[in-house]
Known about the structure:
- The complex is a heterotrimer.
- Chain B is mainly α.
- Chain B is built from 6 helices and no strands.
- Chain B has one domain.
- Helices cover 74% and strands 0% of the residues of chain B.
- Chain B is elongated, with a radius of gyration of 23 Å.
- Chain C has a domain at 1-79 and 150-160 and 184-229: Rossmann fold (3-Layer(aba) Sandwich), CATH 3.40.50.
- The interface between A and B is medium-sized, with 34 and 32 residues.
Amino acid sequence: MTGPRGGRGKGSGTLLQLVRKDLLVGWHGRARLVGLSTYAVTLLLVFSFALGPDTATLHDHASAYAWVALLSASTLLLAQSFLQEVEGGALEGLLLLPVSPVALFYAKALANLLLLLVLAGVLLPLGAVLFDVSPSGPPLALAGILALGCAGLVAPGTLYAALTARVASQQVLLPVLLFPLVVPPVLASVKATALLVDGDPMGQLGAWAGLLVAFDVLYWSLCGVLFGRVLEA
Amino acid sequence: MRWTLLLGILALVALTAGHGIGLFASPPDAAMGQTVRILYLHVPSAWTAMLAFTVAAVAAVGVLWSGRPGWDALLEGSVEVGVVFCGMLLVQGSIWARPTWSVWWTWDPRLTTTAVMMMAFLGILLLRRLVDEPGRRATASAVATIVSYVDVPVVYFSVEWWSAAHQGFSSARTVDEGMRLPLWVSLLGTVLLGATLVLWRTRIAAEARRREEDAPDLPPAPPPLDLEIAP
Amino acid sequence: MPEPVVRARDLGRRFGGRWALGRVDLDLLQGERLLLMGRNGGGKTTLLRLFSTLLAPSRGTVAIFGLDPAREAYRIRRRLALLAHLPFLYEDLSGPDNLRVVARLVGRADDPAPWLARVGLDPRPDPVRTWSAGMRKRLSFARLLLQEPELALIDEPYGQLDPDGHAWVDGLLKEMASAGTTVIVASHLVDRASALCQRALLLHDGLPRWSGPSDQAPRAWTCFQERAS
């Protein structure tokens, strides 16, 4: 039983290590991530078949289809992120190391956000091609709305995925709980994206972005506080 | 038990009086005519639903703070009653929208928020059915209740921005003189009815949990194993 | 008298309407090794989980390192490690990667090679999902050793291992003994495990049936088995 008894990782060090761990697990399970992207792209195609081939209709509602596809794929992504933890008891193992639940939440939420953004990075260009859309707004603003919108899905989503991780019918329960909750960020993201795509003559973009920021701040703090109770139970 | 019954009787009296005046003794509205009378049902239902969810949120904080099973029973009772009143609200909203706007459903911010709120809390009832261990069920539904309750104003706000058309709030102060009395009385009646139902439902939930956790006393310690008389 | 590492008074835990464990009184001093015996469902795992702070007691009290798990779980968890039925591993990661994750989180050097060598495993790059049960058990042991616990809670160390593996576990437990680690082992292999412990406790239907020095444990176990059949 020898070896240096170094100071145990704390604070931001732990957070970074946990994100690194989550991304490593995500990388090794990249086949699933590819599957998820394919699922989201298929959804876009289904929208096209259901509403097309009227190019004008598809063009007008492009941002709505993209966000609905992203929302659907995100619940699967979130559910998977806890499946890995519960399967071999890894999460319990982490709690015993010990790792603080707050660090666990923010690490998991950040990793899920990154993975969702990768997914969006695949999905949105394809959607733009399918629906014949070329953004008129600055690309940086589009990326910003994308990040804020995904962050709004991921914070409550990570909390609810942990909450339902041990429930047998998680596949059904997670979207049932999550969809009503994320109505505000979905509305705001769809509207803001549409404004960036089609132009913003009334200058409404700021208001929607503000709503997204407010929702994100509220839920990234609230869910961080509540996460510990979810894990303890 | 007796108090709850008394509350229920009071509720019935107030509801009879309020709706009696509302249906027969109050004036029709200048613009909306007779359809305005649904106001005496609709506004009180909305208040009661919102109050029930507020009680649920308080109970949720109680669950997380103290962990006492009583809070969990109150949470179950108030969420369920809140969902029922939300359902009533949606039906009434549709019935009113049909003659007024000649559609069954409109994306009015309040109606939309009610629908979203109902789905959110319905999800919590579903969660409660799917988690078997009582302690875990209490914590999980308390967390979900707080998260959903905080979301209600945000949903309302975003939906209001999103849909341009909306009606001003109806409260006892914005309506005509002759409508005030029936509105106040039926509001009192409906809130009392909601309270009665919450109390009854809470008692049932508390009893159910007691049965679930009803453990026989720990058996007495068995005599120690005697190694000497072993073969 | 020194503070016991584990102290339990009238400890009990129930799940819903069923008592899984009750009436456990125990003082375990630093460096002592305790064997938990009992049939499946006897309460061994519940007791280990209570000591690990993962479960809270329904009655009685427990103190680990003199600390109250309800308030100081974090400080207790730093000093103990649990080997449970679940391997506490990420199924998609390789063995070395699993150990690296733990090593970084507890602030150790993140070279897994020496720990893998200690449990007799090669640094294979394939995910542990594809590993045999015995190899995963060894990897879980490496994870436990990596934590360098003062108190090791070990549930069924011999499970899923071949005869060579049994001897290897014996060696590992002896190593822990000479390092002064306090150990609680739950095992069905009473003859084997009692030789490595000093004390033993027999649980049946959640209640203690016998406790004493471990050299009498095999006889107590035989008596209990005959009495019960």
